[in-house]
């Protein structure tokens, strides 16, 4: 069984369009939406939720009877979550430093529901996805949980692939989504910031020893920048899995709630199919 993660240096590069297309092209697979801060794969896959679970995070709570109001916890909280010897659960990131330094042992870390995760059925197969609460952190932990469940289902059902729609950026959730995967497909776009974002995310994948492939989305919007991306990839030994042209049918497919490869047999679909073949081959 092979795990493929689709990532990008930032949001809005077309990552989910490609993940959803892979979902309809791959046989015997489980999908995992690990973009838990802005999950949207479900908009294209129309899941029917079969199982729903709470995702528990931790927040600090002060026992006012024990607290001597020494102020030590307030000094050490980097997230300014404590004022007047009271903890604001929304600002608290659950790091536990305040509980560690409190001389009175007056701070307890308690469990708090910070999101939900789901196992669903779609017409393409099982989907594990999640929703993190507003202003909640710990998304790296939630990503790991979603991947772990997807792997379990893939093993039980004898699947060939786990297709992961990864989070954008280079933070903790991206690192969690890269862990243990066989290949990362980085979706890039031909803008100056896109090139910079690609360099950063490719650096993270390389650091964690994950083989990367690059797909340039809307490559024909700026041929010069696309050329720069290709040169960057060449000089870093990263293979280009394909170049996808701009086409308004992609938006039309999204409005209809379909993956582009299902919606049309045009040039974008043909190129995405080629990218999938390349990823499969690798
Ligand atoms: S460190 Fe402990 S005793 Fe001091 S103010 Fe905070 S909770 Fe109260
Ligand atoms: S657990 Fe961390 S973030 Fe929360 S109040 Fe304590 S020090 Fe601040």
TrEMBL record:
PROSITE patterns, sorted: 4FE4S_FER_1 (PS00198), 4FE4S_FER_2 (PS51379)
Signal peptide location: none
Gene3D superfamilies the record matches: 3.30.70.20, P-loop containing nucleotide triphosphate hydrolases (3.40.50.300)
Keyword terms, alphabetized: Iron, Iron-sulfur, Metal-binding
Residues in 4Fe-4S ferredoxin-type domain copies: 58-82, 83-112
MF annotations from Gene Ontology: iron-sulfur cluster binding; metal ion binding
Stored SUPFAM superfamilies: 4Fe-4S ferredoxins (SSF54862), P-loop containing nucleoside triphosphate hydrolases (SSF52540)
Protein name: (4Fe-4S)-binding protein
Organism: Aerophobetes bacterium
């Amino acid at each position: 069984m092979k795990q493929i993660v689709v990532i990008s240096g930032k949001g809005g590069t077309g990552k989910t369009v490609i993940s959803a297309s892979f979902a309809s092209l791959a046989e015997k697979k489980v999908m995992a939406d690990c973009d838990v801060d802005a999950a949207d794969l479900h908009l294209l896959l129309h899941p029917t939720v079969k199982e729903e679970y709470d995702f528990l995070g931790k927040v600090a709570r002060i026992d006012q009877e024990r607290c001597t109001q020494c102020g030590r916890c307030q000094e050490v909280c980097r997230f300014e979550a404590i004022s007047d010897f009271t903890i604001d659960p929304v600002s608290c990131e659950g790091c536990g430093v305040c509980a560690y330094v409190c001389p009175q042992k007056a701070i307890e870390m308690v469990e708090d529901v910070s999101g939900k995760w789901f196992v669903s059925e779609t017409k393409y197969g099982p989907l594990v996805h999640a929703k993190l609460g507003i202003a909640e952190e710990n998304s790296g932990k939630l990503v790991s949980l979603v991947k772990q469940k997807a792997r379990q289902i893939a093993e039980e059902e004898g699947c060939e692939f786990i297709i992961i729609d990864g989070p954008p950026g280079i933070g903790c959730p991206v690192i969690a989504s890269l862990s243990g995967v066989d290949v990362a497909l980085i979706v890039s776009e031909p803008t100056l910031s896109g090139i910079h974002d690609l360099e950063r995310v490719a650096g993270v994948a390389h650091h964690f020893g994950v083989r990367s492939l690059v797909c340039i989305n809307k490559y024909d919007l700026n041929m010069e920048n696309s050329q720069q991306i290709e040169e960057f990839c060449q000089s870093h030994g990263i293979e280009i899995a394909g170049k996808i042209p701009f086409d308004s049918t992609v938006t039309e497919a999204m409005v209809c709630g379909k993956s582009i490869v299902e919606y049309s047999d045009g040039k974008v679909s043909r190129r995405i199919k080629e990218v999938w073949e390349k990823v499969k081959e690798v």
